[in-house]
Amino acid sequence: TAVAITEQPVSVSVPVGYSFTLRCRAQGRTSLQYQWFRQDQSDCRLIPGATNQDLPIIAEQTQLYTCRVNDLQRNVVFSDWVKVEVHPYVARGLPPRLWQGEPVIVLNPSEQWVEVGQPLQLQCAAIGVPAPSYQWYCNGNLLEQQKRKKLWITHTKVSDSGTYLCCASNSHGEHWTNAVDVHIGGGEILHPAEHLQLFHLVFILATDKIALLVGNNCYQHHPNLMAPVRDVFELSRLLEHLGFQVVSLLD
To answer: Helix (H, G, I), strand (E, B), or coil: what is residue 85?
Structure first.
């Protein structure tokens, strides 16, 4: 092609007021001209004066951006659309002073009590440059279809009960949300004490190989640990391959 994008801009997820730069690079047979556009609601509008390869931005609200590149012979190409996601309510001290763009969790999921057949929604969010990707887990098992900030199950089953958490990751690293319990029941949902009795009953009646893994990473007088959570995930996969039924509990 006469004009080709060699470096696409990337989506970011940042706190309100954060300053950063979107980059676009292209190559062609003649000199190139750049023009950035922003999508406001349903309208795509030219950004006056935004005619450089780099577009400085001070994050104010979530918007979409693209860059048009053309040569002197009227050959034109557009970059990918990228999303600048802006979080207006971010906890104090975030991002860290020496933040390099690694994911930082700004919204953790909360414990849920849901009746069978009702919808389940868990939500998390993270800042990151580039914007983080998300992966949800239940009882240490990766949920193949749950790769967004919001986990959504339209009609819950008893088997959807368990301990959930999400990993936000980008090219700079990863960060895990807090682990939360989701309780799915019939007309009357069991409370924690009743769950404990049920677990005892399951272990007494069990005839197969069962492994109980407990990973603690939240301590009252010690910084949070991440290794126990990951160890539970890795051990659960290993034990399942060995024929164990695995029950994973976090915190």
So the answer is: strand
Which amino acid is it at 88?
P
Tokens 């895990």 map to which residue? 176
Q: Provide the CATH number for the domain formed by 4-87 in this structure.
A: 2.60.40.10
Spatial CB neighbours of 249, under 8 Å, sequence gap ≥ 6: 163, 212, 213, 214, 215
Q: State the Cα–Cα distance between residues 23 and 52, nearest whole angstrom.
A: 9
User: Which CATH number, 3.50.50.60, 3.40.50.720, 3.90.1150.10, 2.60.40.10, labels domain 104-185?
Assistant: 2.60.40.10
Spatial contact of 12 and 130, defined as CB atoms under 8 Å apart: yes
176 DSSP β-pair partners: 167
Coil vs helix vs strand at 69: strand
C-alpha span between 216 and 227 (Å, rounded): 9
- The single-letter DSSP state of residue 158 is G
Domain spans, the chain: 4-87, 104-185, 210-250
Q: What is the pLDDT of residues 149-173, one digit of tens each?
A: 999 999 999 999 999 999 999 999 9
Using the predicted structure, report yes or no on whether residue 55 has a pLDDT greater than 80: yes
Residues in a beta bridge with 149: none
Per-residue pLDDT, 129: 97
Could you check whether the bond before residue 103 is cis, i.e. omega within 30 degrees of 0? no
CA distances (Å), 124 to each of 144, 152, 191, 233, in order?
A: 17, 12, 24, 20
- Please tell me if the domain spanning 4-87 has the same topology as the one spanning 104-185: yes
